[in-house]
Amino acid sequence: MDTTTLAAFLAVDLLLVFTPGADWAYAISAGLRGRSVVPAVTGLVAGHAAYALVAVAGLAVIVASSPAALTALTMVGAGYLLWLGWGVLRQPAVPTTAGESADTSRLQVLLKGFGISGLNPKALLLYFSLFPQFIDPATGWPVAAQTGLLSTVHLTACAVVYVLVGVLARTLLSTRPSAARNVTRVSGAMMIAIGALLLAERLA
Predict the structure, then answer these.
(1) 33: part of which helix (H) or strand (E)?
(2) Is 123 in contact with 47 (CB distance < 8 Å)?
(3) 110: which of 7, 19, 43, 160 fits an S-S bond (Cβ 3.0–4.6 Å)?
(4) What is the dihedral of CA 109, 64, 73, 164, to 10 degrees?
(5) Is 3 exposed, middle or buried (0-12, 13-18, 19+ CB in 10 A)?
(6) Which of 157, 166, 189, 9 is nearest to 86 (CA)?
(7) What pLDDT is stored for residue 196 in this prediction?
(8) pLDDT in tens, 151-172
(9) How far is CA 120 from CA 115, 139, 179, 192, in A?
(10) Other C-beta atoms within 10 Å of 68: how many?
């Protein structure tokens, strides 16, 4: 795989990572609720890493060729987004004080992040639709090695961007409780909208 192909993939990947969605919403919420965004971001990246392992193993091709499997995964992910979005609307995040304990443990925060990104339809799009366009068996690199390299680039981009999103949310909104509530309500509404659109698309 040459540097031109890698640069082209990074450009497209960053466009996807920088697009606000369920991962962003969770990173913002974690930045406002928790003392550290690291557990939340670790969970989000772990969810993407699970897809990476599937892609490296070659199962992505099998899943992508099965409309029923993709439909099932998408509908589960859409339902999860609807549930999370409703929860955010009911209890919007507000900045916590330095001495206030988090509502949930770090492990719970990590596992929730894993569930969000692991069922994120955008991740499905990335691994099952985008990756194959940048993989060329004729280069001499094994397909698994190319997939692993692209996955590493993607996971690094996710980690950096989501940490920045969480930290900026805390920094910019820590003294503005009403603004923080509004931002998280918008994030919850985005989750619901994305989930509803996905369900409508699959049921149509």
Answers:
(1) helix 22-33
(2) yes
(3) 43
(4) 30
(5) exposed
(6) 189
(7) 80
(8) 999 999 999 999 998 898 888 7
(9) 8, 31, 26, 13
(10) 7
